[in-house]
Design goal:
Layout lengths: L1 H13 L8 E5 L7 H14 L4 E5 L7 H5 L4 E8 L2 E3 L9 H5 L5 E2 L7 E2 L9 H5 L5 E3 L2 E11 L2 E8 L6 H16 L6 E5 L6 H7 L4 E6 L3 H17 L3 E6 L8 H10 L4 E5 L3 H9 L3 H4 L4 H13 L13
Parallel strand pairs: 1-10, 1-11, 2-9, 2-10, 11-12, 12-13
Antiparallel strand pairs: 3-8, 4-7, 5-6, 8-9
Helix pairs in contact: 2-12, 6-7, 8-9
């Protein structure tokens, strides 16, 4: 009972948002299922019908939402992590900093000052805490950037990890924090978050504060396998989740296996997006299909998603979508 109550408290704290804005996370256990296309076109669909949208690309390792949206975002914030600097005037070469470093980024040789291998440093600050003489200072290290752009009723916020850096979770956290700060201006009706693929820590951070998750999958064995993983994660985080089947009419598909997983988690499929040549053409042009080809089969299916989410998220309907 105590463990159960503790889990509920942790989940409640995790999902607490700094402000009350309807937040939808578009996610998927497998890369390439089309979640970015859904996130961008859902944003475009809502924007087209007068809703003020804050679109967040939280896939810091491979951000592509801006390209699909046709935006040209500019960096507005550096994301920094701790980077140790050895102050030789205070260092007595005791080696305790190297002993505390779990990633072996610091090495000490007898009677020599510590050597730093920056590529191995995780930024955990253990060396800073372990040094008895205060001989380590933080010189900071830029690991990524937060970008911003504005197109019509859509504001775009995206995180990007610098090449060769490994601290993408920190960039995701900074991106979400910037997005909530932007949303605090009170100028938005809804926030849509495009998460990374998978179920790792970056996805968990991307889902933080979501009122509803849309799990995008495809009717393939890999799609079914990873749908199960993302629904399990959402269940553990206490986030209501609905399913979208992309490429629903692909040759040889078997939606029956998808529906088995959907039923297992007691959720539902809210839209099936067909393979549509118009979608590929809009990709090539860098324009959302919801605005450039609104009568295409894929755009109509995405419009259905926009209508459906009103039943789960309190967004003022205003005029009918269409």
């Amino acid at each position: 009972m105590v463990k159960s109550n503790l889990s509920e408290i942790v989940i409640k704290v995790f999902n607490k948002k700094p402000l009350d804005i309807p937040t939808i996370a578009v996610t998927g256990g497998k890369g390439g299922t089309g979640k970015t296309s859904v996130a961008v076109n859902l944003s475009a669909c809502l924007s087209k019908n007068g809703r003020r949208v804050l679109l967040v690309d939280a896939d810091a390792d491979s951000p592509t939402a801006a390209i699909v949206l046709g935006a040209q975002p500019k960096p507005v914030q550096e994301v920094k992590t701790f980077a140790p600097k050895i102050v030789k005037a205070r260092c007595d070469k005791c080696g305790k900093c190297a002993e505390a470093c779990r990633t072996h980024a610091l090495a000490c040789i007898a009677d020599k000052y510590p050597m730093l291998f920056k590529e191995l440093c995780s930024g955990c600050e253990a060396c800073l805490l372990a040094c008895p003489r205060g001989a380590i200072e933080d010189e900071g290290k830029v690991v990524g950037y937060v970008h911003y752009a504005r197109i019509d009723n859509i504001s775009f916020v995206g995180g990007e990890l610098k090449p060769s850096e490994a601290r993408s979770a920190q960039v995701v956290i900074a991106t979400k924090d910037f997005a909530f700060k932007e949303a605090s201006k009170g100028e938005y009706d809804v926030m849509i978050v495009d998460t990374p693929p998978g179920t790792h820590c970056n996805v968990v951070q991307s889902l933080r504060g979501a009122d509803l998750a849309l799990a995008v999958t495809e009717p393939t064995p890999l799609g079914v396998h990873d749908l199960n993983l993302i629904l399990e994660l959402a269940y553990k985080l206490g986030i209501p989740t609905k399913v979208i089947i992309n490429k629903a009419n692909m040759p040889g598909q078997d939606k029956g296996e998808v529906l088995k997983v959907v039923n297992r988690y007691r959720t539902e499929v809210i839209s099936e997006i067909p393979i549509d040549e118009n979608l590929f053409q809009s990709y090539a042009a860098g324009t959302p299909i919801a605005t450039s080809r609104p009568n295409s089969p894929a755009a109509v299916a995405i419009m259905k998603i926009a209508e459906t989410i009103f039943d789960y998220i309190k967004i003022e309907r205003g005029s009918p979508l269409g």
